[in-house]
Amino acid sequence: MTIIALGLASATIVLKFMDDVVFATIRMKETFRVAHELFIIYLREMDFDPARALHMGNVFRRGGQDTLLSEARRNAAASFRTCGGTPQLDGAKKSDAKNPKTDTKPNGKSDDSSKKPCPDFNAGRPCKKLKPDGTCVFAHRCNQFVSDKGPGGYCFGVHARCTGCDYDAAKKLRAPAA
Ligand SMILES: [Zn+2]
Ligand SMILES: [Zn+2]
């Protein structure tokens, strides 16, 4: 809106640029985080173009979209860490995860017969306690303490606490129920 209001570029150029960079990226099933990072990368491309020839009307058509998109994915993984911890690319979690004690890597599975929710799953970290095949020894269930499931009761819903627990807020506890 600022660019158009100041007359720096016409709406047809700005909107086409936004559609190519942001909305087309989302249509390709990327997250809004990646689209946001890609948008910033394109602004940088125009800013630092040595020939001063790139602008919103031609920067996308110039090519190199794949390279810039993979850079945007890396930036999104590094910048948006809602669960804390080390940056992880989607799809690279299993092979990138470091296991300090053994060389076993998490295979993404968990033992859902376990009565204990996995602390790493709930914190958004790679699981540390693994069986020899890489299956987590704990259940990948929510470890939010709640008041209505007996002593030490957990929410135990099929979600990670760090991504938001939908249990009745009035029954959530900071410490295990006695
Ligand atoms: Zn786990
Ligand atoms: Zn929960």
From TrEMBL:
Q: Which domain of life is it from?
A: Eukaryota
Where does this protein have compositionally biased stretches of type Basic and acidic residues? 91-117
Q: Where is this region: Disordered?
A: 81-117
Listed name of the protein: Uncharacterized protein
Which species is the source of this protein? Chrysochromulina tobinii
